[in-house]
Specification:
GO molecular function, one term: amidase activity
InterPro entries: Amidase (IPR000120), Amidase_dom (IPR023631), AS_sf (IPR036928)
Keywords: Hydrolase
EC number: 3.5.1.4
Strand content: 5-15%
Largest sheet: 11 strands, mixed
Number of strands: 11
Radius of gyration: 20 Å
Shape: globular
Protein name: Amidase AmiD
Length: 397
């Protein structure tokens, strides 16, 4: 228990500048873990769209009640049962969309930590907690992991139960986690993805390299990180192909954008129609209006195209162990009025495939950069196994 109390003390002492936390638990409420499981004594943060008993869940919005949650979300209960100790709620962008909270990037306070899981990534990067829960609809985990220089993992869609999460985009929202290293991420996966056996690779991997240059440019540092990763994997025996997917990328991005707007708008309709609707940001209200304009027939057609392309991509990458692709267009941009671009994450959120950010290097200004590794549906533990083996080889820091 001492470790959890020390994490609570670090968080209280170090948060004045980083502002990763919405609220922290009282010393008296940080109870001893239920067991000595794989996460025994590990303190963790919880994104403020996921319930923790005794703490409010406000989704980054004054429109939500400040009343404390009566019970834990399922994922929080699972972590408690494995010995983890939740010590507080971390900042999220408003309703996990685009309007940022107050969190700063602990690597450089003048830069964004990314979003929408900004507080969770920052709390781990600042060394306040061992791990933190986040969520991803577009790029809300992989992007902040990249900007803050921590390991971020978004599992296969639907494999972590969402009871106790404020779900808005029903076919996209996925619970994931941030950790300091891949080993810790595997420990969390053993708890939240039960039944998936750990993977220990014993051969060189088969890799697909996707630069995704058709949809966006990379900064020099982000491009070097991607190229260096591929070169190092080749040096260690990896077979790397670079398939041409440019024809599909923009279509997948368009489907994601329209799906997200349609689902977000209907998920927030009770707030819009209620007495607190005036408290929503202009950006969110605009998104809701756009989403409500998408008809059911249009939404159904989007999902048919999504299913067709998803099936084609499963077949196309059937012989690949994992995909290497950018995590973000650049290192964390300066300023905190935006959470940065999620352009290189949205396709994987739409397909529902597991995605992992690995920090590998630093830009000239000292900010972290890295790469995104992706695997096919339900190959979560295999992806983590490859990363556990190969991350030390591709890491330059």
């Amino acid at each position: 228990m001492q470790a959890a109390h020390e994490a609570l003390a670090r968080s209280k002492a170090g948060d004045a500048q980083v502002q990763a936390w919405v609220c922290l638990a009282d010393e008296a409420s940080v109870a001893a873990p239920a067991c000595q499981g794989p996460l025994a004594g590990a303190a963790f943060g919880v994104k403020d769209v996921i319930d923790v008993a005794g703490l409010p869940t406000r989704s980054g919005s004054a429109a939500e009640s400040a009343e404390p949650a009566r019970r834990d979300a399922s994922c929080v209960s699972q972590l408690r049962d494995a010995g983890g100790v939740p010590i507080g709620k971390t900042v999220t962008a408003e309703y996990a969309y685009v309007t940022p909270g107050p969190t700063r990037n602990p690597r450089h306070l003048a830069h964004t930590p990314g979003g929408s899981s900004s507080g969770s990534a920052a709390a781990v990067a600042a060394g306040m907690v061992d791990l933190a829960l986040g969520t991803q609809t577009g790029g809300s985990m992989i992007r902040p992991a990249a900007f803050c220089g921590v390991v971020g993992f978004k599992p296969t869609f639907g494999r972590v139960h969402r009871q106790g999460m404020h779900v808005l985009c029903d076919s996209l929202d996925t619970i994931g986690w941030f950790t300091r290293d891949v080993k810790q991420s595997q420990a969390v996966a053993s708890v939240l993805l039960p039944g998936l056996a750990a993977h220990r690779p014993d051969r060189p991997p088969r890799v697909a390299l996707l630069t995704c240059s058709a949809i966006g440019d990379l900064s020099g540092a982000a491009r070097r990180a991607l190229n260096d990763c591929a070169a190092t994997l080749r040096e260690h025996g990896a077979h790397i192909d670079a398939p041409d997917v440019d024809a599909d990328l923009q279509a997948l991005l368009d489907i994601h954008a329209q799906t997200m707007l349609a689902e977000l708008a209907r998920g927030l309709l009770p707030v819009v129609r209620g007495s607190q609707g005036h408290l929503l940001s202009p950006a969110l209200r605009t998104a809701i209006d756009r989403g409500l304009a998408i008809t059911h027939a249009e939404y159904a057609a989007l999902q048919q195209r999504r299913a067709r392309l998803g099936g084609e991509w499963l077949e196309r990458f059937g012989g690949v162990d994992f995909i290497v692709t950018p995590s973000a267009p650049s290192e964390a941009p300066e300023g905190t009025r935006s959470t940065g671009s999620s352009l290189f994450n949205r396709v994987w959120s739409l397909l529902g495939w597991p995605a992992l950010h690995l920090p590998t290097a630093h830009a000239d200004n000292g900010l972290p950069v890295g790469v995104q590794w992706v695997a096919r549906t339900d190959e979560d533990q295999a992806l983590l196994g490859w990363a556990r083996k190969l991350h030390p080889l591709v890491q330059r820091t």
